[in-house]
Design brief:
about 550 residues; alpha/beta; 6-stranded parallel β-sheet; 24 helices; about 15% strand
């Protein structure tokens, strides 16, 4: 029999799973386990000020490392706070394990009593309740196994009285990494490869769309080689932004964030090949982006019907890289090649495209967000991680910043929620620990969890924050204006976010004119630590996307 208590054995098991960083908000039901991880095993523990943010930080860590992120919260109201972030992680395919402290199994009553399982499952997360001491280590192993293999969050429900029991066995633990399936690249059916080759041979204007799975599996170079052979242009889904930015025939993001040139080219396309991409509503503009194209989807889990849409004419259940290589080999074997739409003049148009040329007046002491982001993109080194929150400002970031590797982009919009960017930015910054992480966030989103600026200061997190401050919930303000309604109920004033940052012990600067970002970046690089820029943007400039969707511009 061991002299260890259950929470001690569980801490040991988490370390065996490779956990080196943990994000927590401490309470009765997770405090002993959480502190032991840090004090005995040296696991870096970031103590957040809100449970939602602790879990968002764990998700940011997972995005940056590819590993399972770990957060912990206490029972009852500690657990209910993370429902939004659990849903975000489910939609984003982010592997997490949440140590969810639970109320006592044997208590007659508790003010914190809550049935955690239905809430967790409602978000799409997996729920593993620990109800008997004999199953403790099996449950930990299951949680990590599901998180890794299914790429989704798992909540581990751990009653606090069970945690304090003596563990009656030797604490032998075989981690899930020893039991999981060997990583593989499922190869395509040769008959389906032949069908795709025939479709390519008949096509005049093919386009390949790479998705998040193509980034994860390293399929980018194979897709580029295939595109060159068959004359295809290259695009990405939003989560794969940057995958083909370096390619002269990369036309950017497909769908909602597509520029005018990309829309023109998609409208002409007669064949679209989606590689490890969902091809859902946003990526395909509800099916209207490429109305004349036949569609092939390559995915390890292809869907015939997705988000209410018929996805493709042909589905190939296989790895994107293996399939691209197989198609390319068959094209070369049959000596099939084409230039498609690839011309020097098109490459020049792509390189020189002005994303949004429409002019707007700019009020004194504010900046045009489009011009500001172009300047920011020029001066922030290309090897930095860029974390982008969600809101109207996201449109400007996605369309005006380019030429960064896909694995350096972290766009936090899988559930369409605001308020998760700051937590994710902290998670990425803790992981990198190099001062090369830029968070771009809106004022409304930041203010939802402004308390985490204290977490940044307390833990010495190195993070640069650029807050695009329009003094409003910009998305709602522009939609009101599009309907010719008064937007004042969505406008709250800019405040002084730089002063707020200074109040938390960080450096802050207010930006009301262009031309100063280069000096600000140099100053940040020299001083290190954390810094917040309060960038006052003109609040009456709707993005091109909003003008098209809400204002009816063509």
């Amino acid at each position: 029999m061991s002299d260890m208590k259950v929470y001690e054995v569980m801490a040991q098991a988490f370390v065996a799973e490779g956990v080196d960083t943990h994000f927590a908000l401490m309470g009765n039901a997770n405090m002993y386990w959480s502190s032991l991880l840090a004090l005995k095993y040296g696991v870096r523990t970031i103590h957040a000020r809100h449970e939602h943010c602790a879990t968002a930080m764990a998700a940011g860590y997972s995005r940056a490392t590819g590993k399972v992120g770990v957060s912990s919260v206490t029972c009852g109201p500690g657990f209910t706070q993370i429902m939004t972030e659990l849903t975000c992680a489910v939609r984003g395919g982010t592997p997490l394990v949440v140590f969810g402290g639970d109320t006592q199994l044997n208590a007659s009553w508790s003010i914190h009593e809550l049935d955690m399982g239905p809430l967790a499952v409602a978000t799409g997360a997996h729920y593993v309740p620990i109800r008997h001491i004999d199953r403790v280590l099996d449950c930990v192993r299951e949680a990590f196994h599901v998180a890794r293999t299914q790429r989704r969050p798992v909540v581990l429900g751990v009653p606090m009285d069970l945690q304090q029991q003596k563990f009656p066995y030797l604490p032998d633990y075989k981690p899930s990494t020893d039991l999981g399936p060997t990583r593989q690249r499922p190869h395509p059916d040769p008959a389906l490869v032949d069908q795709v080759v025939e479709m390519i041979a008949a096509a005049k204007k093919p386009i390949i769309i790479g998705g998040r799975g193509a980034v994860r599996t390293g399929a980018g170079p194979s897709l580029e080689a295939l595109a060159e052979q068959c004359g295809a242009l290259l695009a990405t889904s939003l989560p794969a932004k940057g995958l083909f930015d370096h390619n002269p025939f990369g036309i950017g993001i497909a769908g909602a964030f597509a520029g005018n040139l990309a829309r023109e080219l998609f409208a002409e396309s007669d064949l679209v090949i989606g590689a490890a991409v969902g091809l859902g509503n946003y990526t395909t503009e509800s099916g209207y982006l490429y109305p004349n194209a036949r569609v092939v989807q390559i995915d390890t889990n292809p869907r015939g019907l997705w988000q209410g849409l018929r996805v493709a004419d042909l589905h190939i259940r296989a790895d994107a890289k293996a399939t691209a290589d197989a198609i390319l080999a068959k094209l070369r074997e049959r000596r099939i090649s084409a230039s498609g739409m690839r011309t020097e003049s098109l490459a020049l148009r792509i390189a020189n495209e002005v994303v949004d040329p429409k002019e707007y007046p700019v009020a004194p002491n504010t900046v045009d967000p489009r011009t500001a982001l172009l300047e920011l993109d020029r001066v922030v080194p290309k090897d930095w991680d860029i974390v982008v929150g969600n809101g109207h400002f996201t449109n400007f970031v996605m369309t005006h910043m380019r030429d960064r590797a896909a694995d350096r982009w972290h766009v936090i919009n899988d559930f369409g929620a605001i308020g998760s960017g700051l937590g994710a930015g902290i998670g990425v910054a803790v992981t990198r620990n190099n001062g090369k992480v830029l968070l771009i966030e809106g004022d409304g989103s930041l203010l939802m969890h402004i308390q985490e600026l204290e977490t940044i200061k307390r833990h010495g997190v190195q993070l640069l924050m650029c807050i695009l401050n329009d003094g409003a919930y910009g998305a709602e303000a522009h939609k009101f204006r599009a309907q010719k309604m008064d937007a004042k109920e969505s406008i709250h004033g800019r405040g002084d976010l730089a002063a707020v940052a200074k109040g938390f012990g960080l450096r802050g600067a207010t930006v009301t004119a262009l031309g100063g970002f280069e000096a600000l970046v140099r100053g940040y690089q020299k001083n290190g630590g954390a810094e917040l820029w309060d960038v006052h943007i003109e609040d009456k400039i709707p993005s091109a996307q909003y003008r098209r969707v809400h204002f009816g511009e063509s």
